[in-house]
Amino acid sequence: MDINNNEKGRISVVGMGPGRESMMTQQALQAMDASDVIVGYTVYLELLGDRFAGKEMLSTPMKQEAERCRMAFDEAAKGKSVAMICSGDAGIYGMASLMFEVKEELGSNAADIEIDVIPGITAASSGAALLGAPLNHDFCVISLSDLLTPWELIERRLRAAAEGDFAIAIYNPSSKKRHDYLQKACDILLEKAEPERACGYVRSIGRDGEEFRTCTLGELRDTDVDMFTTVFIGNSQSRIMGDRLITPRGYRL
C-alpha cells in the first residue's frame, strides 16, 4: 500500500443481489459504473456481464476474503475508486464487516480511505418474493454453515427461533461436506414444530435453473438441497396456498 499518496480513493462495498442486472439496485449499478476497479470472488465477477467488461477486475479464490479486502485497500490507496462486490446484501453475510475490520487492522495506512456500504437484495427477500410471503411477520435468518460459526451455536439459534415461533430463512443449508445439515436442522425444529409445518425452498434465485417448491417440515427433512438453495420455515400460522407459502401478518378480514 502506498502510504505516501495524499489522494486516497474510496471503497464501495456493493451488494449485487442474486447477480442478474435487473435485480441490482440503481445505487449498486451506479457505484460499479463509477468505479475504476471492481474486486470480487471470481464467480461474482463473471455474473456482471458485458456492462462492466471494460473495468479493471481483481479477484481471489474462495476462502481468501481478507486478502481480497486488502487488495481493495491497495487499489484505493493509489487514488482509485473501488467497488468490492458480494452477492445479496453487503451487510448480510457479506463483506461489509470484514472491510471495516481490515481497515482497522491497516491503521494509519487506511485511515483516509472512506468506505460506503451499498445495500442489495438478499436471498431472504428475493426468495420470499418467489414463494409468496413466507416472511410477512417476525422472522430470523440463520446460516447452517459452520465454517465460521460453531455448530453448537447454530443449534442454539435454531432452538431459540423455534421456541419464539419465528418464521425462518435458512442460508447455506447444505454442501458436499455438510450434506446432512438441513436434516439435522429439521430434526431440531421438529422438537417444537409439527411435521405439517408449512415450508418451502428456492434454488438458484435470479439465475439459470431458478425454481421454487412448497412442502411440509417433515417433507423438507428428506429433501436434497445444495448451497444455492434458500430454505424457508413457516411459523405456526403459516400455510400453503396453492403453490405459495404465506405467513399472515394478522390483518382482520
Strand content: 15-25%
Structural class computed from helices and strand pairing: alpha/beta
Helix content: 25-40%
The biggest beta sheet reads: 5 strands, parallel
Fold and architecture overview:
This protein has helices spanning 26-34, 42-47, 65-77, 96-106, 123-131, 151-163, 181-189, 217-221, and strands at 10-15, 37-41, 56-60, 82-86, 114-118, 132-133, 139-143, 167-171, 198-203, 211-216, 229-233, 239-241, 244-246. With 253 residues, the protein is of the alpha/beta class. The protein has two domains: 10-121, Cobalt-precorrin-4 Transmethylase, domain 1 (3-Layer(aba) Sandwich); 124-246, Tetrapyrrole methylase, C-terminal domain (Methyltransferase, Cobalt-precorrin-4 Transmethylase, Domain 2), CATH 3.30.950.10. The strands form three sheets. It has a five-stranded parallel sheet with strand order 3-2-4-1-5, sandwiched between helices. Strands 7-8-11-9-10 form a five-stranded mixed sheet, sandwiched between helices. A three-stranded mixed sheet has the order 6-13-12. α3 (65-77) crosses α4 (96-106). The protein is elongated and about 60 Å long. 40% of the residues are buried.
In short:
This protein has 253 residues and is α/β, with parallel strands linked by helices.
Descriptive tags:
8 helices, alpha/beta, Cobalt-precorrin-4 Transmethylase, domain 1, 2 domains, Methyltransferase, Cobalt-precorrin-4 Transmethylase, Domain 2, about 250 residues, 13 strands, single chain
